[in-house]
Amino acid sequence: MPDAAPDNANFRKQNDAFDPPVPEQAARTLNQTREGSRDYVASLTGLRGVAALFVFAFHYGSLNPGIRLDLSVPVIGSVLHFPIGFGFSGVDMFFVLSGFLLSLPFARSTLSGKVQQPLKRYYKRRILRVFPAYYAQLAIILLAGSWFVTWKPVDGVSLLAHLLMFFNIGWDPVRPIVGIWWTLPVELSFYLLLPLIASFMRPRRWLALLSSGILLSMLYRLWAADYFASASEGAVFLAASHLPGSLPEFLLGASAAMLVQWLNLNAIKRPGPWMLDAMFLASVALTMAWFWKVLLPNGAAYWSGHWSMVIAPAFLGVPLSLMVISLYWGSRIGSLLFANPVVYFLGLISYSLYLWHFVVMQQAQLLLGELYAGWHGLAKFLLSMTLVVLVAAISYFLFERPFFRLGSRVKPRPPKSTASQHTR
Predict the structure, then answer these.
(1) Most trustworthy range by pLDDT among 105-109, 116-120, 154-158, 413-417
(2) I need a labelling partner for 312 at 20 to 30 A (CA). Which of 235, 348, 369, 417 fits?
């Protein structure tokens, strides 16, 4: 794999945690790049698929309390059961990936002293990427009404909040119709913020910004834990997760983007294959250590403002950023796990999979009744996954892919020359 990082033109094809390359590009070959450029990294697309599966498994466990795949499924049961307990970390993966992939073109432009991409084009692509599939799901649920388990009446204020993704803000917030939508305004906030912090993407400036962001996040989370302590269940975590609460994960992802671009611009050779595999394994080990040594002993207290929740974005963001770097540079183990066709396809549909997974499982319980409730173990898990993937694939091809292609056809205006700027 070549050392060259993608330039802005190449990265029109993929530049955030929910942006898959279009299928024609995927058909060339997984994780293959042209000399001197990188259209995409299939391992990172696959990582999105794993992140979405983690969240699916976590919510599968919440809808099927007491499930123990580690006891009922031989050989792979422990692997399947792990995300049921810690699958919420899939959201953290999405945040770090967004920070990394979206920041790559900004970091390259700032570090090389070139003109940044036009903001109009940047925001247009963000809108076309995030809102169509979300609006489609919102419209389907509202039109179908009470047929959906998750449906509830909405007034004018609530509808406006849903159209703007303005959820879970304040003491008496608008709750999203689908609970997992809480992450969407967090992502959207970073999209809006990123161009404003792009000018800080120089080593000395960035270190100050990163340190300030981590400190601000911890202080904000401490405040949220105290202020919302007597609010409804889950209010502390939801409030604490809004920016600046989740800012460190985005900033650490952006830090990883700066690092790979700085090394590329300075013609510094990336680590060799064995070192990249060691980086990947170390990132997995550090992430597992966080789960087993910090989160597991604290249990339910984590969601109510425990100190582990206060520091989580920074301490979990570091190994996840290390993982992203190792995958971007071509870890062989990472490619084997995440760039295979099955996981890669899940990465393509990961946004729709995230949007629909909980709704589909709720509807399966309603429509299939005792037939569904009576199933147990691996069979029920695979049935649920099949239904979710089927609906997600339909959503991707109908509501994501057409608008993604439309966004890919947005042509950036050529930057004005330095000379013409000085003559004004």
Answers:
(1) 105-109
(2) 348
The pair of structure tokens assigned to 270 is: 């990336």
Domain ranges of the chain: 10-422
Percent of the chain with pLDDT over 90: 58
Q: Is the pLDDT of residue 322 over 70?
A: yes
Res. 23: pLDDT tops 60: no
Structure confidence by residue, pLDDT tens digits, 279-289: 999 999 999 99
Q: How far is CA 14 from the centre of its chain?
A: 13
Instruction: Give the Cα separation of 189 and 247 in Å (integer).
Output: 10
Q: What is the dihedral of CA 235, 318, 250, 388, to 10 degrees?
A: -70
Residue 351 is encoded by which pair of tokens? 């946004």
3-class secondary structure for the chain? CCCCCCCCCHHHHCCCCCCCCCHHHHCCCCCCCCCCCCCCCHHHHHHHHHHHHHHHHHHHHHHCCCCCHHHHCCCCHHHHHHHHHHCCHHHHHHHHHHHHHHHHHHHHHHHHCCCCCCHHHHHHHHHHHHHHHHHHHHHHHHHHHHHCCCCCCCCHHHHHHHHHCCCCCCCCCCCCCCHHHHHHHHHHHHHHHHHHHHHHCCHHHHHHHHHHHHHHHHHHHHHHHHHCCCCCCCHHHHHHHCCCCCHHHHHHHHHHHHHHHHHHHCCCCCCCHHHHHHHHHHHHHHHHHHHHHHHHHHHHHHHHCCHHHHHHHHHHHHHHHHHHHHHHHCCHHHHHHHCCHHHHHHHHCHHHHHHHHHHHHHHHHHHHCHHHHCCCHHHHHHHHHHHHHHHHHHHHHHHHHHHHHHHHCCCCCCCCCHHHHHCC
- Which residue has tokens 């173990």? 377
Contact of 132 with 399, CB cutoff 8 Å: yes
Taking the C-alpha atoms of residue 67 and residue 88, their distance in angstroms, rounded to an integer, is 17
| pTM (two decimals) | 0.86
